[in-house]
Structure to design on (174 residues):
């Protein structure tokens, strides 16, 4: 009943919070909903749903990637940074040497460490990004809520970013 991307956000939230499992949702769909009118997008939601996706913004990013025919990024990709710390990237495309960070306002408006200012949070994020780039040689694209509101423009930006990343990889290997 809901648009595909909105439904994906709901399903991912239920999966991430462990309220249900993908297997249970699929079983319910196959039991009685498979032949409902207008249920084709449900199949897409079930294929894209992933409990690793932690926020609505991340679900929207996956929806944009699918709807705009972009390579499907791996959510919550783990790398070890130059300090030996394991870091989770919101999304990665290792074959392109890139990762994506989805930036919501909450991270910057409500710092979660006692005594921390918004400036402290921004500087910590910058250091984290630098350490990951140093360890992997990858490039990062930060995506905001505003970016997610214009999927066509965001897709063009991502395509240019990926093309640039591939060109850089070719240049490095020459």
């Amino acid at each position: 009943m809901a648009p595909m991307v909105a439904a994906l956000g709901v399903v991912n939230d239920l999966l991430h919070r462990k309220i249900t499992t993908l297997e249970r949702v699929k079983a319910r769909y196959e039991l009685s909903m498979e032949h409902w009118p207008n249920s084709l997008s449900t199949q897409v939601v079930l294929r894209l749903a992933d409990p690793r996706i932690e926020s609505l913004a991340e679900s929207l990013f996956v929806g944009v990637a699918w709807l705009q025919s972009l390579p499907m990024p791996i959510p919550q990709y783990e790398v070890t940074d130059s300090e030996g710390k394991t870091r989770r990237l919101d999304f990665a495309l290792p074959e392109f040497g890139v990762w994506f960070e989805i930036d919501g306002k909450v991270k910057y408006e409500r710092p979660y460490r006692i005594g921390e200012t918004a400036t402290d949070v921004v500087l910590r994020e910058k250091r984290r990004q630098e350490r990951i780039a140093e360890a992997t040689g990858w490039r990062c694209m930060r995506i905001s809520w505003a970016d997610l509101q214009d999927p066509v423009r965001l897709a063009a930006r991502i395509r240019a970013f990926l093309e640039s990343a591939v060109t850089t990889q070719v240049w490095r290997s020459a």
The chain has eight helices and four strands. Residues 151-173 form the longest helix (23 residues). The longest strand covers residues 86-93. Strands lie at 74-80, 86-93, 98-103, 139-144.
